[in-house]
Amino acid sequence: MCQHRRMSNAPVLPLIQPEAAACCPPLNERPLTSEEAERTARMFKALGDPVRLRLFSAVASHEGGEACVCDISDVGVSQPTVSHHLKKLKEAGLLSSERRGTWVYYRVEPAVLAAMGALLTKAAAA
């Protein structure tokens, strides 16, 4: 855990989750439109890199569903490379971030994650 977290006495406030549009329908519902396919491919492509997948998993599994960059940086690559991969995850719509003083906190976009899960699980259950 980061040094700044241990020393902070500030209360942790709950996050308000924005409503996000679903990425696409389940694969067995109808063919994806060109736009849906592009958006979905960006998400899966972002998760196709092992370092990005580890970073995404670290954020998703972190207590409270958000993590300071200092809590998730130990993935075997340099800090600039971590920043690059986090940027790619944000661009794909999988993470959002918020700067708090000198630290950046990342959180998983739950609506997008749920939509990606539904894309595959509803199709697999059919």
TrEMBL record:
Pfam families: HTH_5. Keywords: DNA-binding, Transcription, Transcription regulation. CDD domains: HTH_ARSR (cd00090). Residues 32-126 form the HTH arsR-type domain. InterPro entries: ArsR-like_HTH, HTH_ArsR_DNA-bd_dom, HTH_MetalResp_TranReg, WH-like_DNA-bd_sf, WH_DNA-bd_sf. GO terms for molecular function: DNA binding; DNA-binding transcription factor activity. Coiled coil: none annotated. This is Transcriptional regulator, ArsR family. It comes from Streptomyces venezuelae (strain ATCC 10712 / CBS 650.69 / DSM 40230 / JCM 4526 / NBRC 13096 / PD 04745).
